């Protein structure tokens, strides 16, 4: 191929930079000298120079001036009237104001608001006036395992002092379904009212459900519904309006406690099952309510999201495993074509080009993914050609851990 | 144009516009309208569509300028918008060949003779102009025939002069891949237009 002093592979990589004018004069001179002694590289350089000559002859078309009018009109309509009239450069104070405005309306404000609400509710939960038991909120037992039974052992109000601990526990058992409904409602509120917050913020927010200190025999049916409706409109951590004494459900002494060991849940909903199987004093599930509900509703979608998340982080080996599991476990998944294309991207990044190509060819059989797969196949084939010429090159887009994991897997 | 604004960077101009200076946006538009239009035109291969997309690109710049935080260059951001629009459009459109905007009607030329055979020792000026025009059409066609991934890299480099590093950011692939695509694009152009080498030399 070439003399020992001339490396065609590395030279070829620099030829494009050379013809595009990205090299310094010294580098260009050195490259020319190096190429001059190699027939193959000289031929490559001639081809590239000819191509660049044609590229420079590309006709440049001017857009019609009428387009500018519409664009400038839209640009002007965005501005406030005063600045349009003056046309003067804004002052630094107005810039500072813009920065503050942007900060106040950004997602940071929502996070700060949630944090303040949490603190406020936490402070409010602390017992204050012992006489005001009607409006006092008590923390949910699952939040505070150690102190879970403390409120119960303390008479909540003079009227409830006569209620025994056992009766109170059974009342809580019967309320389990209601509290799960409230959690679902709160999860809905989470999704609709707080967008863009990180899941960590939601997971850390204590899930506080409130109940009044006064125990009652049973609520009227409409009041429970109203309570659930009210909770839908409220942000997490916000206190539910106190329910009157008639709002408490009657304890179901005949039914076995769902918290008994090995107790089965009557509900078929997986999300509810998980809630009921957890003992009263068990720590709170670390998974956010929203993620729990999503996983309950669509496991395929949840798996897909996990795979995408690993892919976005560059952990392609893990991502590949998840995609494989997704596509084999849920072959009828509605977004399988998209998942196949994403899986091919993982393989490409791991340098497993054959598998990447196979996935893209499979994706092309789906009408919805055909065009995307075709485009990616073209770029994959280009990359494969480059990789064959320089086999020492590491697979692109993968971390060292991924490369090692991929090697082990193979 | 104000000489002061002419020396401002793109990012500073956008900041000025965000603060209410309409003239700053006019400068930005003047800087990029032609190059972005050519990128769009050669990508979607439909002049009417390219005009619509040009408007859409700058409308998005106007509406999203508050979100531009100078973490990347303005040109990178702008071409990311343009590229995304091209990708969306390409998916919707049924690809069909369109004559380039600068292409003369075939009836204007004597089409009985292939272009390469018209290279004569001396030709009248008017004829030379027509042939030069036709050559430009061939070049535009050859560019539009490039594979999508190569064409977008080629156009961003040739039309706007973006650095390979910036193109890599826009397209989302490594820089070496971008350079490879550029190389393949140039080689394809050379291959497609090699018949006109002699002609181009005679014209020059």
Into which percent range does the helicity of residues of chain B fall?
Answer: 55-70%
The rough form of chain A would be described as extended
Strand-residue proportion of chain B: under 5%
Contiguous runs where pLDDT drops below 50 for at least 5 residues of chain B: 104-122
Q: What is the total tally of β strands of chain A? A: 0
Mean pLDDT metric of chain B: 83
Using the alpha-carbon principal axes, give the shape of chain B: globular
SSE layout and pairing:
The complex is a heterodimer of chains A (410) and B (204).
Chain A: H1 8-19, H2 25-36, H3 39-56, H4 66-78, H5 81-86, H6 92-105, H7 107-125, H8 150-153, H9 165-193, H10 199-204, H11 221-232, H12 270-277, H13 289-297, H14 299-313, H15 316-329, H16 336-349, H17 353-363, H18 367-389, H19 400-409
Helix pairs in contact in A: 1-2, 1-3, 9-11, 13-14, 14-15, 15-16, 16-17, 16-18, 17-18
Chain B: H1 3-6, H2 10-18, H3 22-44, H4 47-64, H5 74-92, H6 125-144, H7 148-160, H8 164-171, H9 175-192, H10 197-203
Characterise the protein shown here:
The complex is a heterodimer of chains A (410) and B (204). Chain A contains 19 helices and no strands. With 410 residues, chain A is mainly α. In chain A, helix 1 crosses helix 2, helix 9 packs parallel to helix 11 and helix 14 packs antiparallel against helix 15. In chain B, helix 3 crosses helix 5. By secondary structure, chain B is mostly helical. The two termini of chain B are 36 Å apart. Helices cover 68% and strands 0% of the residues of chain B. The radius of gyration of chain B is 20 Å and the shape is globular. At the A-B interface, helix 1, helix 3, helix 4, helix 5 and helix 6 of A face helix 2, helix 3, helix 4, helix 6 and helix 7 of B.
């Amino acid at each position: 191929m070439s003399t020992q002093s001339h490396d065609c592979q590395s030279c070829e990589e620099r030829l494009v930079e050379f013809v595009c004018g990205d090299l310094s004069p010294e580098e260009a001179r050195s490259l020319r000298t190096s190429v001059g002694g190699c027939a193959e590289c000289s031929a490559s350089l001639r081809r590239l120079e000819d191509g660049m000559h044609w590229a420079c002859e590309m006709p440049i078309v001017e857009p019609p001036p009428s387009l500018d009018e519409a664009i400038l009109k839209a640009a002007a309509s965005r501005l406030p009237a005063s600045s349009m009239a003056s046309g003067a450069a804004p002052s630094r104070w107005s810039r500072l104001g813009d920065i503050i405005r942007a900060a106040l309306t950004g997602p940071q404000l929502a996070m700060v608001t949630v944090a303040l609400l949490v603190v406020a509710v936490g402070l409010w939960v602390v017992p204050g006036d012992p006489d005001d038991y009607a409006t006092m909120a008590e923390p949910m037992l699952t939040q505070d395992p150690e102190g879970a039974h403390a409120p119960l052992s303390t008479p909540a109000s003079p009227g409830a002092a006569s209620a025994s601990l056992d009766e109170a526990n059974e009342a809580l058992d019967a309320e389990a379904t209601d509290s799960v409904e409230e959690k679902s409602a709160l999860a809905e509120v989470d999704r609709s009212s707080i967008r863009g917050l990180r899941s960590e913020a939601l997971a850390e927010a204590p899930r506080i459900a409130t109940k009044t200190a006064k125990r009652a025999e049973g609520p009227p049916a409409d009041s429970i519904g109203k309570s659930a409706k009210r909770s839908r409109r409220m942000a997490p951590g916000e206190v539910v309006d106190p329910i009157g004494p008639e709002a408490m459900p009657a304890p179901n002494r005949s039914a076995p406690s769902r918290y008994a060991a090995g107790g089965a849940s009557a509900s078929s909903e997986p999300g509810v099952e998980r809630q009921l199987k957890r003992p009263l004093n068990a720590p709170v599930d670390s998974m956010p309510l929203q993620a729990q509900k999503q996983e309950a509703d669509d496991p395929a979608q949840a798996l897909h999201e996990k795979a995408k998340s690993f892919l976005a982080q560059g952990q392609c080996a893990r991502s590949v495993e998840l995609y494989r599991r997704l596509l084999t476990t849920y072959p009828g998944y509605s977004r399988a074509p998209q998942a196949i294309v994403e899986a091919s991207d993982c393989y490409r990044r791991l340098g497993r080009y054959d598998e990447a190509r196979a996935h893209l060819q499979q994706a092309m059989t789906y009408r919805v993914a055909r065009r995307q797969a075709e485009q990616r196949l073209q770029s994959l084939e280009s990359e494969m050609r480059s990789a064959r010429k320089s086999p020492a090159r590491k697979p692109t887009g993968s971390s060292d851990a991924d490369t090692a994991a991929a090697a082990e897997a193979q | 144009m104000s000489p002061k604004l002419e020396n401002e960077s793109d990012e500073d101009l956008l900041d000025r516009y965000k603060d209410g200076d309409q003239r700053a946006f006019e400068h930005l538009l003047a800087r990029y309208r032609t190059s972005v239009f050519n990128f769009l035109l050669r990508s979607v291969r439909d002049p009417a569509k390219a005009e619509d997309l040009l408007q859409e690109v700058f409308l998005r710049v106007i509406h999203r300028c508050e979100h531009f935080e100078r973490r990347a260059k303005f040109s990178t951001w702008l071409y990311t918008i343009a590229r995304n629009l091209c990708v969306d459009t390409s998916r919707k459109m049924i690809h069909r060949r369109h004559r380039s905007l600068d292409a003369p009607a075939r009836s204007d030329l004597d089409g009985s003779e292939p272009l390469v055979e018209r290279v004569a020792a001396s030709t009248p000026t008017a004829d030379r102009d027509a042939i030069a025009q036709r050559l430009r059409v061939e070049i535009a066609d050859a560019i539009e025939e490039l594979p999508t991934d190569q064409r977008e890299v080629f156009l961003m480099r040739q039309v706007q002069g973006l650095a390979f590093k910036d193109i890599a950011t826009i397209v989302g692939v490594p820089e070496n891949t971008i350079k490879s695509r550029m190389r393949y694009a140039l080689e394809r152009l050379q291959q497609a237009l090699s018949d006109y080498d002699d002609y181009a030399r005679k014209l020059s």
